[in-house]
Amino acid sequence: MSIPGMRRAAVGLTALAVAALGAVATTPEQADARPKPVDVTLLALNDFHGNLEPPSGSSGTIAGQTAGGVEYLATHLAELRAAAKKKNTITVAAGDLIGASPLLSAAFHDEPTIEALSMAGLDYASVGNHEFDEGAAELLRIQNGGCHPVDGCADGTPYGGAGFQYLSANAFKTATGRPLMAPYAIHKVQGVKVGFIGMTLEGTPQIVSQQGVAGLTFTDEAETANRYARELRRKGVQTIVVLLHEGGAQAATGGINDCVGMTGPIVDIANRMDPSIDVVVSGHTHQAYNCNINGKLVTSASSFGRLVTDIDLKIDRRTGDVISAAANNVVVTRDVAKDPKQTALIDRYKTVLGPVADRQVGVTSQALTKTQETLFGTTLGESPLGNVIADAQLAATDAEQGAVAAFMNPGGVRADLDAGPVTYEEAFTVQPFANNLVTLDLTGAQLYCVLEQQFVTGRTLYPSSTVGYVVDPAGTTGTAADPCAGTRVVRGSLTIGGTVVDTAATYRVTVNNFLSGGGDGFSALTAGTNQVTGQIDLDAFVAYLTAQSPISAPALDRIRTTAEVPAA
């Protein structure tokens, strides 16, 4: 049974625990004779998303400081290792190291990121949902090495694979029932064993394209962690760390080392985990927190390499149990020296990428952010950049496919655009998934159902400028089984092109192929018929930026509430 502590405040053994370990020392000499605990430091990150260079805009700041960039991250990791005695330090990550990456990494199938993090000393990482963006076979190539089966070795050099071990305990091959990758690893430090269980979120099939998770089955996070914790204990491992790509969020008043009003899936998962699990390094939600949940240290280091979680464990040398655990989220500031090896790696890939990245594709007259407006107390509203992307997708399909409306999922808008010239690389960073546009037929009734499903999934679809509707905060929310039963969208308020939508009529609507396949929980879109697949979403976005520049932030008036539009 492990005894955790919190935030550098090491918690000592209770009298009961001491008694269980043997006779209590009664003299200083006896106390000194007891074996000293083993000090182990875990350095943790999550949701790096290929951000080799410092992120721009709000994505490049945290806790009031500019942060991030692998050149600085590597230096901070080295300094933290030096402070903690390098031989006792293990560097870990909780998923989404790759996927949804800027062009510098994504253009090479994220090989640069794997090389950079390997060089920075990463030891173990769980598999996040974005590691499945290009499918299981590509993930195995990322782990084991080899040139891409289509694009080859794009930078002209062999790709040797990851210098760290990906762990995936709850992603199973459906045909055989066997784990896709190693479910756990055992790391020895001064004779004590530390077990690491890798875990992605059970809901991965709902937020990754169906091609990406084909042939795989995902199981419950807590149940799977408990199963492998039992297996680790049978192997003599008493210190157990779960690297979990799932998380939560604290209240807005909480700082990077707080745990104020914690909510989200991580709370239930941690509460259902076995007491033998000591630490949960989490991710997915891009939040920073430092919590004690159900007697476990639960941490998250936000995203994009802006934080490193410095976790100190004291482990009993005789029993292998954790005596105390404490954590501190450290900002990856840019006031340290750049790691020269990381700089050389970035320069090499930028040279190979050539002038494509710097090509100007448009101009913005003001910053376009992905930040959603607050709609009746929650961030379920529109965003300036999301609306622009929806407009771009409609412009790409209105003439050729007859589309009259378009909708964009918020998770597909990955970065802000600053005011001024927009390069191809910046546009790519906003839309890095290479999703195809799909235009399909929906009846007016089906459109209402899609909009009602927003309140079931907790995600707002950004509408093109042709769309308008009114939301009633007092309306009822449908269910996952029957989202159409909801009454949040005022019937008769939905218009396309200024004309009220007829529930019996048919409309041509454009979404990306992720949404048309039911992604983000929008199963109502799978009912669309006469589907026509079009160009890549990024191409549509770039073409729109070029044709419409300078681009201004559109008004956020496509979704209104009954407070703004009283009932007739």
In words, what does this structure look like?
There is one protein chain. The protein has 568 residues and is α/β, with parallel strands linked by helices. The chain contains 15 helices and 27 strands. The strands form seven sheets. It has a six-stranded mixed β-sheet with strand order 6-5-4-1-15-16, covered by helices on one side.
Number of strands: 27
Radius of gyration: 25 Å
* Overall average pLDDT: 92
Which structural category do the helix and sheet elements fall into?
alpha/beta
Shape: globular
Q: Beta-strand level of the residues, as a percent range? A: 15-25%
Low-pLDDT stretches are: 1-26
Distance between the termini: 64 Å
Q: What is the overall number of helices?
A: 15
Taking the sheet with the most strands, its summary is: 6 strands, mixed
Output the strand order for the largest sheet. 6-5-4-1-15-16
Fraction of residues in H or I helices: 25-40%
Question: In a few lines, what is going on in this structure?
Answer:
It contains 15 helices and 27 strands. Strand 8 and strand 9 form a beta hairpin.
Q: Can you give keywords for this protein?
A:
568 residues; alpha/beta; six-stranded mixed β-sheet; 15 helices; disordered N terminus
